[in-house]
Amino acid sequence: MSGRSASAAVSDAIKLVLFDMDNVLCAYDRATRVAYLAELAGTTREAVHAAIWDSGFELLGDSGALEAADYLGGFGERIGYPLSLEEWVEARRRSMQPDRAMLDIAGRLRNTVDIAVLTNNTTLVADHIDTLLPELRPLFGSRIYTSAQFKTAKPDPQCYRRCLSELDTTPEAALFVDDLAANVAGARKAGLFAHQHTSMESFKQALSEHGLLRE
């Protein structure tokens, strides 16, 4: 049997809860980011979106195919504006709002299990997380990982396995939480338990099934 179900009966087996970031620990509004970048570059939102996301350029950053400096330089070239690191960070920051309820649950979980973050992003996100989402550091410490540092991106099973190796945790001892079905499927293929985040209620139910949440 390959992969793992989020609803499998488990008791005291999970040692790590691994969280995605965007639309799990924070609400991410790409449109806000695109609008700010378009204003800086003096171009249209459609042009920015096409240059960065529709073109596949962002995936080059997420997968570590581009180092941070090359990613930032290429980003500016594509939108036709000499984008500074500070402006890139500010655009990203404006698009993120902490999910207080999810962060509260993460805080409760860390009393009994390890917690960490694995997000599909360039290393710039981890490097500047204290500006982007300062609520994460007190909860997760240094365990905030971007896919780029593992030279691949979710849903590639290697992304999860390399992250777990860094965390010294086996796949069967980890529960992964992501809003995207493809990333949940990738985690299960890598041998992790996984839950697709659609609501607070379903997440609490999944945690309860794993014996991780006690009211």
From TrEMBL:
Write down the Gene3D superfamilies for this protein, in alphabetical order: HAD superfamily/HAD-like (3.40.50.1000), Putative phosphatase, domain 2 (1.10.150.240)
Query: Which SUPFAM superfamilies does the record match to this protein?
Result: HAD-like
Q: Highest taxon of the source?
A: Bacteria
Concerning InterPro entries, the annotation shows: HAD-like_sf, HAD-SF_hydro_IA, HAD_sf, PGP-like_dom2
Q: Which NCBIfam families match?
A: HAD-SF-IA-v3 (TIGR01509)
- Give the protein's recorded name: HAD family phosphatase
